[in-house]
Amino acid sequence: MKQLLKKHDLDYEIVVLSDEWFGLPFSCKHLLKHFLPDHRLIWVETIGLRSPKLNLYDLKRTITKISQWIFSVNKSDQQVIPKNLNIINPFQIPYNHFNVVRAINKSVLLRAINGLGDKAANRTRVFITTWPFVGNLVGRLGDRLSVYYRVDDFSEFPGVHKKRIIQLENELINKVDMIVATAKDLAKINIEGKKIRYLPHGVDFEHFSSRKNNDRFELPIQKISSPRIGFFGLLSAWVDFDLLSTLACMQRQWSFILIGPSQIPISQLPQAPNIHYLGAIPYQELPKHAQFFDIAMIPFKVNTLTRSVNPLKLMEYLSMGIPIVSTPLPEVETYRDYVKIASDPENFAKAVETSLEEDSPQLREARTLVAKPHSWKEKSLQLKNWIEEDLEDKIV
User: What is the torsional sign of CA 322, 325, 326, 331?
Assistant: First the structure.
């Protein structure tokens, strides 16, 4: 007879394969940090999908990774690690699309995770991955339940082997117990009996809705003339820099401000007197700078990749109450009542002009209230419910 356990009283730990805990802000960390300290997290930092290229961004990341492996240097050495979080950073070889490399990496990961040696005999283990190439680990970690947290269409990423990624992802999808998708397009998986859940991104609401600047000195962004049309996030291939370049030429009286690290050499990005690259700003400091945007923009290209993207910055902008203009991404169009949508430079410029004219304290408050129910804590509780419902079904 099945033994039903009281929800949220299940004793389980989670093995997570994802990005670096102390790296750029990302949804998996936002979501799972709320499982702490009640549930132990074994956080395994892996190397991702792309093979390294000869560019500054990849070179820096490669040097950092090699240094961590050889000299046991880790960002966590200088930062506070939350209670019940174990971060491991095992040596990995790039080029996971090769079977022999994948087999070696599998062996290394299994040894690193199972070598912790302190798994309680009565503790159930849940396996969660954001990476599509680790189907060969499902069921090999002592996991009772496996979850694929599907955050992107990885086969469409620049620089990956598309056919191989599709093959590996299909292997993972068929093996896991549950798929949690951050975009409706990512949830379109037609496999009979497979549990597919849609969980759009949340927001650290208190962090972004608090916009006070206690600095004694003027911030660099305050020295840039208004109106300030701003963006924060990774400057990557899916940002429509042609659109930005055209807008900067059309509206020379506007200041276009881009905050964030760049995967593209700055010399190859659009250059104009009214385009300002402020570089990376720590996550904790971001709202203090972004509060000076007059308009927040999501200028992504619209293609197969971005149609599956749920931009983290959407809810972050809304939490701050800033008027938003975006290209027509499906996950953004859900909020058409609060975001202006434009697909070409002329209409984008008109949308910015209209937003500047219409902006008011009342509209800013309305945007903030839209974001408030979508906290990461609430998203985490939803995921916890799904996990514990499935675990209860499995425990006999």
Answer: positive
Domain 205-373: which CATH number of 3.30.1300.10, 1.20.58.1120, 3.40.50.2000, 3.40.50.150: 3.40.50.2000
Q: How far apart are CA 313 and CA 311, in angstroms?
A: 5
Strands (E), the chain: 12-18, 41-45, 85-88, 124-129, 143-150, 178-181, 195-198, 228-232, 255-259, 275-279, 295-298, 324-326, 339-341
Q: How many residues does the chain have?
A: 396
- To the question of pTM greater than 0.70 for the whole model, the response is yes
How far is the C-alpha of 221 from the C-alpha of 364, rounded, in Å?
21
What single string gives the DSSP state of each residue in 183-214?
SGGGG----TT-EEEE----B-HHHHH-----
Determine the straight-line distance between the first and last CA of the chain, rounded to whole angstroms: 6
In one letter, which amino acid is 98?
Answer: F
Distance CA 332, CA 240 (A): 16
Task: Specify the range with the lowest mean pLDDT, choosing from 106-110, 183-187, 231-235.
Answer: 106-110
What is the tens place of the pLDDT at every residue in 116-138? 656 555 679 999 999 999 999 99
Fold held by 12-202+375-394 = Rossmann fold (3.40.50)
Our measurement of the distance from residue 45's CA atom to the centroid of its chain's CA atoms, rounded to an integer in Å, reads: 15
Instruction: Tally Cβ neighbours within 10 Å of residue 150.
Output: 26
Question: Rounded to whole angstroms, what are the CA distances from 154 to 98, 131, 160, 204, 314?
Answer: 17, 9, 8, 25, 21
Per DSSP bridges, beta strands 228-232 and 295-298 are parallel
Phi, psi of 108 (to 5 degrees): -65, -45
Inter-helix orientation angle 361-371/312-320, to 10°: 140
What whole-number distance in Å separates Cα of residue 278 and Cα of residue 260? Answer: 7
d(CA 396, CA 394): 6
Closest CA to 312 of 16, 35, 49, 25: 25
The answer to whether the peptide bond before residue 311 is cis (omega within 30 degrees of 0) is no
Identity of residue 152:
D
Q: pLDDT digit string (tens) for 149-163? A: 999 999 999 878 899
And the tokens for 316? Answer: 């972050």
Any idea where the domains of the chain sit in the sequence? 12-202+375-394, 205-373
Cα 227 from Cα 325, distance rounded (Å):
14
Q: Which helix (H) or strand (E) holds 85?
A: strand 85-88
Of 310, 261, 296, nearest to 282 (Cα)?
261
